[in-house]
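User: Could you go from structure to sequence for me? I need the amino acid at each position, not a summary. Structure tokens:
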């Protein structure tokens, strides 16, 4: 495997994804919490950083722990760190280098540059530049304005690159990473979803033995795939609970329950609608609503899990980005909403936690799900927030509002599916606004509710663009909603991107 040391760059996760796309397993660790370097580790990548090596409190790492022993590739800040700590010089660039650049000459002798074309396009994003390299460093690529675009250290397998191979605008970036990971580090490319399933199930069997496991399922990809893995390991000793919080999409509870039964899971549906509505009564603040839902869920789940005798484990669908976020260089970020808590285990539940997906990215989770034979209606399902429709009804929640929104949402989502647009957007839904507007139906004036439709394209939900759905589709859906859903007389479409807006309205 490859170890990626994170110095806080926005691109660190992308490096990991590219390495894994090469079917090589890798892990990201913060530079200040390096794990023990086991024999499985075949090489180290040092990430970029928003910091400068010239800063007083610049993030540093004890390079001697692995340099000379293992191949090392420094990317951007990582490269500058290697140069700086070996006696080279790093200075602010005359102008900030950001965007596409072309490699001029490339040293064809260098193992890192094998197969990389002269004039290959790369992506630059840096404020500092290496102005002088130590004697034993050799330049292996330059661009017009960056003399030290890539270097190699004589007599060791240590390399540095100023550009970002992990960004797709570096057209041969993946090839360069392959040169490092496969040819220089000698990693074998055998990390696939099938091998992941095999080793994970074997590991779970050993860890869980004959113990009982309880899991809450949401119908989403992560919890479903996690449950299937645990199910393969312990069979009917896995007890799944699916709670109807009254905030799900129309018919979702019945459909999802049916799918799970079909998959052979030992699943119990719990109708707790009234308990949730009661807890939400009169609440309008989004975070207060989230907290009330979270607390009610824990109450319900705790009650249900106590009905399972001698349960030892709590299974969770935590995925890698949640783990990285919770141990990141910057510490758990202040902007995290209350849903991103990893673990989330209240003390009184006293269960051990098992998280079979906590090393996988979302697309890898889907690939594993496909290997496990999960159906498309689960695998390709859009993300849906835990608090469900409660954060899409601005203001207080009532059963009546939920029902209106469910109808609108179902027409929108079914329309997207019918027109083949569902798989083209990352997430879609409807929002019930706390305003009424004047309309006219037949001879009468109406004063009814307004709904907003939201559909976005995104890769990971961190940034998103509003989906450019065809006008004809929007026109048809708007008509259909106003005609079919009593109480709604106006439909608007949200054309805000994230940032500065967010995907949800609350
Ligand atoms: P925002 O609105 O922050 O949403 O752009 C990003 C992604 O997170 C989902 N989201 C939530 N998921 N509980 C969840 O489980 C929540 O409270 C919550 N709030 C937002 C949102 O649907 C989108 O996929």
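Assistant: Here is the amino acid at each position, in order:
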């Amino acid at each position: 495997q490859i170890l990626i040391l994170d110095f806080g760059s926005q691109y660190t996760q992308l490096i990991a994804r590219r390495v894994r796309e090469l079917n090589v397993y890798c892990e990201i660790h913060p530079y200040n919490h390096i794990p023990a370097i086991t024999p499985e580790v075949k090489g180290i990548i040092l990430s970029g950083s928003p910091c400068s090596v010239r800063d007083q409190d610049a993030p540093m790492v004890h390079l001697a722990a692995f340099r000379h022993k293992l191949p090392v590739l420094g990317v951007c800040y990582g490269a500058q760190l290697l140069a700086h700590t070996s006696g080279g010089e790093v200075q602010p660039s005359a102008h900030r280098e950001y965007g596409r650049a072309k490699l001029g000459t490339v040293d064809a002798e260098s193992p890192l540059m094998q197969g990389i074309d002269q004039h290959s396009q790369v992506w630059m994003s840096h404020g500092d530049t290496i102005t002088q390299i130590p004697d034993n460093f050799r330049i292996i690529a330059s661009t017009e304005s960056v003399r030290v675009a890539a270097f190699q250290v004589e007599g060791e397998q240590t390399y540095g690159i100023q550009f970002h191979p992990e960004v797709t605008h570096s057209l041969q970036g993946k090839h360069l990473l392959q040169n490092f990971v496969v040819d220089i580090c000698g990693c074998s490319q055998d990390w696939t979803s099938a091998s992941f399933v095999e080793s994970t199930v074997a590991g779970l069997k050993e860890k869980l033995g004959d113990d009982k496991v309880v899991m809450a399922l949401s119908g989403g990809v992560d919890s479903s795939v996690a449950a299937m893995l645990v199910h393969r390991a312990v069979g009917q000793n896995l007890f799944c609970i699916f709670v109807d919080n009254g905030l799900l999409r129309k018919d979702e509870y019945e459909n999802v329950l049916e799918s799970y039964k079909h998959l052979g899971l030992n699943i119990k549906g719990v109708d707790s609608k009234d308990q949730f509505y009661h807890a939400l009564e009169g609440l309008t603040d989004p975070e207060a609503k989230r907290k009330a839902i979270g607390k009610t869920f824990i109450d319900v789940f705790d009650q249900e899990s106590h009905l399972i005798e001698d349960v030892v484990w709590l299974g969770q669908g935590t995925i890698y980005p949640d783990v990285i976020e919770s141990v990141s260089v910057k510490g758990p970020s202040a902007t995290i909403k209350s849903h991103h808590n990893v673990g989330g285990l209240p003390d009184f539940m006293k269960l051990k936690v098992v998280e079979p997906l906590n090393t996988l990215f979302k697309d890898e989770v889907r690939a594993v799900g496909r290997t496990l034979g999960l159906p498309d209606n689960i695998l390709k399902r859009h993300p849906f927030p835990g608090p469900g429709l409660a954060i899409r009804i601005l203001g207080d929640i009532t059963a009546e509002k939920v029902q209106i929104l469910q109808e609108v949402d179902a027409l929108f989502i079914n329309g997207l599916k019918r027109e083949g647009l569902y798989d083209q957007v990352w997430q879609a839904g409807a929002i019930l606004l706390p305003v009424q507007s004047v309309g006219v139906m037949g001879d009468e004036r109406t004063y009814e509710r307004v709904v907003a439709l939201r559909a976005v394209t995104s890769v990971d939900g961190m940034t998103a663009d509003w989906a450019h759905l065809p006008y004809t589709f929007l026109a048809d859906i708007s008509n259909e909603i106003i005609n079919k859903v009593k109480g709604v007389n106006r439909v608007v479409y949200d054309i805000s991107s994230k940032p500065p807006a967010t995907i949800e309205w609350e």
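One structural detail worth keeping in mind: Confidence is low (pLDDT under 50) at residues 332-343.
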